[in-house]
Amino acid sequence: MIFMKRRERLLRMTRILLQSLLTFTVNISIAASRGWVRAFNLSRKFGSFFRDSRRILGESFVALFICAIGDLIAGIFLGKMSPMLESYPGLLVLIPGAIGMRGNIFGALGSRLGSGLHIGVLSPELRRSDVLADNIEGTIILTVVMSLFLGFMAWIFCQLFGFESMGIMDFTVISVIGGIISGAFLLPATVLISLKSYENGWDPDNVTTPLIAASGDLFTLPSIFAALAVLEMVRNGFFEWILFAIFLLIGAAGLIAGFRGRYDLRKIIRQSVPVLLICSALGTTAGTVLNSKLSFILDNPAILALVPLFSGESGDLVSILGARLSSGLHSGIIPASLRPHGEALRNFGIIAVLSLLIYPTIGLLAHLVSDFLGIGSLGPFSMVLISSMAGYMLTPFLLLVGFYLSSASYRLRLDPDNIVIPLSTSMTDPVANTCLVIAIITIMGL
Predict the structure, then answer these.
(1) CA 112, CA 134: separation in Å to the nearest integer?
(2) Which residues cross the membrane (predicted)?
């Protein structure tokens, strides 16, 4: 009797154990099947994303790589300017703002010219018209006025943070002369790029804006180099006072002429000036971040070569995103909501893929060129790691800034050519340099 009870208990326990094991196996099988289905669906989505975005990714990566060459040349100039950064204290505070300002002013000009060509208010032969004249006049006025403001801001930031610095007249003369010289090259270059973009059917969102921004990077540093040569001839003398006074008068006269000009000129000046003032402050903040690590940067000039490259490519990425989102909002493809979905998320994916590719590439480029030119490098592994780490920290910020600025611009009915690209790139600069400094501190153990 006892034996029978034990046998029944054992059979019952065995049955329960087998049932539990079977249930567990079934649950595992279902979970695995669901996982495989999800993985399959995800792979299909990724495949569909890459098929649909192949042209955009190809165009954008080629444009970014071409821009990287321009940014790299600017980086080489900056790397070779190490002695000047010591001779002209505070110059590094000015440089990022100057680089960003050229891209902002002339990038907006390129966008306006591209829009004018596509809607027919400008002819492909660029015959003289009020619209063309207003765009050119507005760009010249903004270049002088913002260069003046940038010189003042650089001096003020140096005083606020206790940095050793040049005088306010030195900053102003360097900034304005550098702006005039670079503007003389950038104005025809911007017109040419816009025209060729229209003639060849290039997507202005993916190609034109980054190319113009890279041109700004390319011409700005040599122009500052030339401005320093002019400053050396007039520094601490009567002629520096005269130049300072002339620049102030020209800036004031230009601003008055802009506010009293034709409708298009007034619109450009009124919408651009407040935005570019904010951009100048943000650009100077970016320079302040770099200047805080000046001694390490001077000991490792390859970091100087990486700075314009990293900031330029980050600005190009957020410009591409902002331009694509603005186009989508105005064409109705992207809804004006506060939560990104659909086509907006697809554009996020495009920028994420480009970020994964471009940041290691520019770190390696900075090392190779620095090594070739005898500029002290931290080594290929460290340079790639610094660039990649900083870039991947920065990417979520790029996505959020690009999306919410585009949405706000659309909701407020502001011209995205004058608002989105300048503000997004300028907001990116200080954050990009902060990420770069954090990556350097983390990897180099400073």
Answers:
(1) 11
(2) 55-78, 140-161, 173-195, 207-231, 238-259, 271-290, 348-369, 381-405
* 345's tokens: 């998320």
User: What's the pLDDT band for 118 if we cut at 50, 70, 90?
Assistant: low
Q: Which range has the top average pLDDT, 104-108, 334-338, 372-376?
A: 104-108
Name the band, by pLDDT with cuts 50, 70 and 90, for residue 320: confident
Q: What is the pTM of this model?
A: 0.74
- Mean pLDDT score across all residues of the chain: 79
pLDDT at 37 over 70: no
